């Protein structure tokens, strides 16, 4: 307004008297857009550009003549709009980058947790395949000390040695360096292992294989020790040996072989435990184990040889024949 001139405000057109506050309101709208609305960076940038273009057009067209808004104020308001537009766009970009990183980290964490759970399940299954269930549970417990091993004395356990004596004559390294013979022996032992998955043989635990000899025991689990019937686990082991012989006979028909199974079983007290820290192996020791091994080595083909005290416990269910006195050294 020129100096010395006065105008009646009521007679002037309705223009904004304080345009800077209107611009401040526009700035707040952009801040709200950038800080609270969850939109993509490109969408936010497009909206901010449209808002700034609209506000600049309003700043130069609608906010009144030059008498009410001088050039310096227009320039300051114009710079203010551009500055906040850049800041809002930059903030939106940072928020999107942070959101993307959070999403990637979350997916990575979920994937790693799933891999850890799968690896733990695999290790648990592997440990339970190597060790008896109650021994594996002991090693997996959190209360066990890191260097503490497992050993336990048992009062009544049945031990079995089942060997295939004529496999030694069958084995030959002339064909594929003996690989085919070992593959056939593996098929035999796999058939024996499949029997352990049956419910009636749940008390039987595979101990190890020694050459063509399959070693197993029954009565090691705490459930078997609490059973009232003394010969329950012994009966399960005898039935297991009979089923092993049936499986071997079936394999002979398909492979055109004449393998025979020789079994020795004994029962009594022994000690079981885990040997080794890096490669743990469960094994059993005692006179019962030695006696079962001698029953196998001095037995005959397709028979189960047991000592006198074991025969007195296992009185029914199988056909028995007294062999007489025999020295087992």
TrEMBL record:
Q: Which cofactors must be present for this protein to function?
A: Mg(2+)
Transmembrane feature ranges: 21-39, 45-63, 75-92
Q: Could you tell me which PROSITE patterns the record lists for this protein?
A: GUANYLATE_CYCLASE_1 (PS00452), GUANYLATE_CYCLASE_2 (PS50125)
Q: What species is this protein from? A: Hyalella azteca
Q: Which residues form the Guanylate cyclase domain?
A: 158-296
GO CC annotation = plasma membrane
Record keywords, A-Z: ATP-binding, cAMP biosynthesis, Lyase, Magnesium, Membrane, Metal-binding, Nucleotide-binding, Transmembrane, Transmembrane helix
Tell me the protein family, please: Belongs to the adenylyl cyclase class-4/guanylyl cyclase family.
GO BP field: adenylate cyclase-activating G protein-coupled receptor signaling pathway; cAMP biosynthetic process; intracellular signal transduction
Task: Answer yes or no on keyword Transmembrane helix.
Answer: yes
**Organism taxonomic ancestry:** Eukaryota, Metazoa, Ecdysozoa, Arthropoda, Crustacea
Say if the entry is tagged with keyword Chloroplast.
no
Grouped into one coarse class, the protein's main location is membrane
Instruction: Name any one GO molecular function.
Output: metal ion binding
Q: What is its EC number?
A: 4.6.1.1
Q: How does the protein's chain sit in the membrane according to the entry?
A: Multi-pass membrane protein
What is the official name of this protein in its record? adenylate cyclase
- UniProt-listed InterPro entries: A/G_cyclase, A/G_cyclase_CS, Nucleotide_cyclase
The subcellular location is: Membrane
Known catalytic reactions = ATP = 3',5'-cyclic AMP + diphosphate
